[in-house]
Amino acid sequence: GQCITHCPVGALAARDDTEKVWDAIADKNKVVVAQVAPAVRAAWGEELGIEPKDATVGKILDSLKRMGVDYVFDTTFSADLTIMEEGHEFVQRFTGGELKERPMFTSCCPGWIRFIKTQFPHLVRYLSSAKSPQQMFGAAMKTYFAEKIGVAPENIYTVSVMPCVAKKGEREMELFYGEYAGHDIDAVITTRELAKMIRSAHISPDTLKDIESDRPMQEGTGAGVIFGATGGVMEAALRSAYYIIKGQNPPVDAFTAVRSRGFNENDGVQEANFQINDITIRTAVVSGLSNARALLQKIERGEVHYDFVEVMACPGGCVGGGGQPIHDGEERAFERGKNLYYLDDNAKLRFSHENPDVLTMYEEYFERPMSHKAHMLLHTEHDAEVVNYGKGMC
Ligand code: SF4
Predict the structure, then answer these.
(1) Residue 392 pLDDT more than 60?
(2) Phi-psi region of 10 (alpha: psi -120 to 50; beta: other; left: phi over 0)
């Protein structure tokens, strides 16, 4: 992890939220609903001595159920949902002529959001309005899912397991839904805090079984899994943007040029242009905030021109996040990223727009990407004046 020595979001002062989660589990009035981010599966085994091939997300879900969590989900589902919203937003902004002032920036990394709001506030209007997968899942849990199980949103307690310390600040984003005024997410624990909870519950890692996430938000595609690595959001979004524009799928490896070649290549910036029909989409992917700063300065000086830019605060993306296991003097993000690309290669579904459970949720609830309801629950207004992400941490 980057955190102890270089965490871009100031994780040294991170608070421990495990007690809050134990209290919610003990509260008989609460239905505790958890989600596990893609990058966690690539690293949690390091903390508990489990080999990467055996450290599956299914075993994390089993550990959460054995600790008393009522429903367990994989954030890969809502990464696919994010792509549906952000992919449509990009195509709409790009082809509708609305986005004359390009590029559109991704918005799922709270370390990056805090950085742009404080360092480049005049560029905030270029951010996608899509909430992150963590926040979208929380909103879906307290609305769509709450209705399915017949529980009021105030009695649903949403927990996320994240590779990230800044996600603890992002969770303060508000959710308004009918009578309910609260938060999408109630508690965030990091990968390290998850390991601590497994130990304190005296769960022996070798007794964990590979279980599936709960219905109806069960499926996740390979496109959702690669969100945890730098370039993953861009690649997943382009796979679906191609489909939205052309009405057919691209070859699944059409956009691998956005993947990182390693931290020290090209100042951490991966540039690529893609042709879809008569449209050229100019993309850039960058990780690490000093690399992001250099890239933004070049954009401002007019030296480079892009249509779509992915930024992740942690070098290598979330796999290198501040909440991941730490190994003195050793950076494992790149290796962990390969693990996610392996999972994508072997996934039965590779396109977010083919996630059957996401499509069912649209049919039953959100109607279509960018609908009024989707705007109310799955998007946010970014305001350069308001920086509440990472409050008390950075
Ligand atoms: Fe958190 Fe990922 Fe952003 Fe790092 S790159 S701050 S882990 S969301």
Answers:
(1) no
(2) left
Question: What does residue 73 show for φ and ψ, rounded to 5 degrees?
Answer: -135, 165
User: Which percentage of the chain shows pLDDT scores above 90?
Assistant: 81
Choose one of 318, 324, 326 to mutate for the ligand 1 pocket test, by most ligand atoms within 8 angstroms of C-beta: 318
Question: What pLDDT is stored for residue 263 in this prediction?
Answer: 59
Q: How many domains does the chain have?
A: 1
pLDDT for 331: 81
Q: pTM of the entire structure?
A: 0.93
Give CA 338 to chain center in angstroms.
17
User: Does 29 reside within a domain?
Assistant: yes
pLDDT at 100: 56
Amino acid code (one letter) for 4? I
Which protein residues touch ligand 1 with a CB less than 6 Å away? 9, 109-111, 163-164, 166-167, 312-314, 317-318, 321
Asked if 162 contacts 187 with a C-beta cutoff of 8 angstroms, the reply is no
Domain that holds residue 57: 3-378
Asked if residue 390 belongs to a domain, the reply is no
Residue 392: inside a domain: no
Residue pair 165/3 in contact (Cβ under 8 Å)? The answer is: yes
pLDDT band at residue 14, thresholds of 50, 70 and 90?
Answer: low
**CATH number, residue 200:** 3.40.50.1780
